Amino acid sequence: MDLSQPVEENYANPKTCFFHVLFKASALGFYILSALFADSFVIIFVITVVLCALDFWVVKNVSGRILVGLRWWNEINDQGESVWKFECLDQESLARINQKDSWLFWWTLYLNAAAWVILGLFSLVRLQADYLLVVGVCLSLGVANIIGFTKCRKDAKKKIQAFATQTIASRVSSTIQSAFSVV
């Protein structure tokens, strides 16, 4: 093996990456090409929204957990308030997350939302308010995942920092205790 050449990292989870991209591409592709397939706004709306809903579910429950080690959900507590819940892998497992998988996850999440914004602008320019409804639903699903995973990533970083601080403090404390117990 030639060590002078950099080792190119492959996708650790190619099937998950494929499905992560598949539903985004199929929803966008169907919406863009729908003029060729259907004249009915209802059919276009239903199929596009179902594809976006499948994408939302796959990202939130499967690819987010596998590709970046994060999971989020929202609950309503007893007082009727919305409460965000987050799960992340432990620090050791997060360190082993494949960078290529992570890169694909985050970039497709943001690029998908950007594509829906652009399609919304086209619908606005063409004065097609009904198609703005399709774009609005799809964009809101994408943005919900962006917000959920971004909050989850920030929460994971806080937990890792707290764990590191606690570990350092306990090591310093045990070192000081052992130093004084020797005397």
TrEMBL record:
The keyword Transmembrane applies. The chain crosses the membrane at residues 28-58, 103-125, 131-150. InterPro entries: TVP23-like. Pfam families: DUF846. One of its GO terms (cellular component) is Golgi membrane. Keywords: Golgi apparatus, Membrane, Transmembrane, Transmembrane helix. GO terms for biological process: protein secretion; vesicle-mediated transport. It is found in: Golgi apparatus membrane; Membrane. It is a multi-pass membrane protein. The keyword Transmembrane helix applies. PANTHER family: GOLGI APPARATUS MEMBRANE PROTEIN TVP23 (PTHR13019). Golgi membrane protein involved in vesicular trafficking. Belongs to the TVP23 family. This is Golgi apparatus membrane protein TVP23. It comes from Corchorus capsularis.
